[in-house]
Each structure stands twice: as C-alpha cells, then as structure tokens.
Predict the 3D structure of the following.
Amino acid sequence: MTNRLIDIFICDARLGDPVLRTYQFILETSEAATVGLALTKAGIAQGPEDPVLARKGCFGVFGKHKDWDSQIHSGDRIELYSPLLIDPKMARRKKANQNQNAKFQAAAAKRKARRL
C-alpha cells in the first residue's frame, strides 16, 4: 500500500473571530485518519491529554462533537470551540423565569388599572 494525502480544514474559534485554515498531511499506511492525528500533525495538540484540548466538547467535525479517536476523511472541517461561558440549561431557565415574571407584572398592572 502507498501513503495517502489528506486535505482537511481546521476552523479555530477559540479566541475571537473564527479562523479557517487548510492543512495537508501524508497518512502513512499504518496510520488511521483520526481527529487526534490531524490535530497533532497540524501542531495544535501534543496528545489526547494536552491541556489545550483537555476539556470535553472542545472540538468537533462539521458541528458535531467528536472524540480524539474519531475517524475523519479528506475534505472534513475540524472545529475548535471556545469554552462555554454559561451553562445552556441555566440560560434557558433564567430567560423563562424572566418571561414569567414579566407576564405576572403585566397582569398585576392590568388588574390595578381596572380598579382605578
């Protein structure tokens, strides 16, 4: 078997505006094309325990979370995500409570206006 050339895109959205770069690397016959291998060959990470990518959910392929050993193909876009600033469940709960409070206050104002 011969070596293969893999073309991928890496979109780094960890700091500021997303930056999209193309990478090409040669895949040796004994190597499998994985997310981890691509990130290592691109010089972004040293290994699966690298502190740069240690947190869960910090990278994916085409918007879907992937693991270090997930297979990739030529033409795939690996995305590096910034950490979440707030838990999405907490944000939805907070917004729902604000909406409920606003409705309650509007109804109380209507009742008060009717009395006057």
About this structure: Residues 4-81 form a domain with the Ferric Hydroxamate Uptake Protein; Chain A, domain 1 fold (CATH 2.170.130.30). The longest helix spans residues 88-115. The two ends are 88 Å apart (CA to CA). The chain has two domains: 4-81, 85-116.
